[in-house]
Amino acid sequence: MLFLLSGPSGVGKGTVRKALFKKNPHELLYSISATTRKPRRGEVDGRDYFFLNKEQFEKMINDGQMLEYAQYVNSYYGTPKTWIDEQRDQGNDVFMEIEVNGAMQVRAKVPDAILIFLLPPDLMQLRNRLELRGTESDEVINQRLKTAREEILMMTNYDYAVVNDKVDKAVKKVQTIIDAERLKANRLANSYIKILEG
Ligand SMILES: Nc1nc2c(ncn2[C@@H]2O[C@H](COP(=O)(O)OP(=O)(O)O)[C@@H](O)[C@H]2O)c(=O)[nH]1
Ligand SMILES: Nc1ncnc2c1ncn2[C@@H]1O[C@H](COP(=O)(O)OP(=O)(O)O)[C@@H](O)[C@H]1O
């Protein structure tokens, strides 16, 4: 199965994803994205992102190696396709964390993906979180908040929406969605087997 978490910048996608993986370290495989953005302090190539230059990224696009990609505030972000295909072929469940335009490409290309939208309690708190994190300039924060309004309008294309009020609560809700979807998929698979067996 393919689970996808998306939502506006600063809503807490990274925080929720990390907490989810800490709780369930072996359950899901995290899809590491490629980006042309410069690494932030503490970020490691191949763990947080594959940090590429523009030429390398564009070559991957042209070679059809991206499941999806988007330009977001002057950088490219994309999901390498081969790894995802390999994992899904082996029956592993994959978890992606990406922005909204990429999520819509996944929606079109992988119809059975489960899309979860993470919402801020309100836009003021979104600004506060971006300011507190302190990794972006005021100009970039303003750009990201403008993008956030447009992104929230895309929520109707998702399967689930989760408000990130308290991290623990949001993680529990995401976990419940994953558990329920897995149960459903297993039940469907079992019914198919019964039909096939007559
Ligand atoms: N389309 C797409 N977006 C991605 C991918 N990886 C990360 N993003 C998104 O790009 C946006 C910017 O990411 P980043 O610069 O790490 O900032 P942060 O998520 O706000 O910490 C976020 O909304 C990410 O979820 C990807 O592979 N594809
Ligand atoms: N539920 C929450 N309540 C308060 N602050 C939060 C919450 N979730 C995340 N944050 C903080 O908000 C900032 C942005 O979170 P981050 O996970 O980097 O967002 P994103 O990956 O969506 O851009 C970080 O400083 C993080 O610690």
TrEMBL record:
It comes from the Bacteria. One of its GO terms (molecular function) is GMP kinase activity. Its EC number is 2.7.4.8. It catalyses: GMP + ATP = GDP + ADP. Coiled coil: none annotated. ATP binds at residues 7-14. It holds the Pfam family Guanylate_kin. It is an enzyme of class 2 (transferase). This is Guanylate kinase. The lineage of its organism: Bacteria, Bacillati, Bacillota, Bacilli, Lactobacillales. Belongs to the guanylate kinase family. Keywords: ATP-binding, Cytoplasm, Kinase, Nucleotide-binding, Transferase. Residues 1-179 form the Guanylate kinase-like domain. Essential for recycling GMP and indirectly, cGMP.
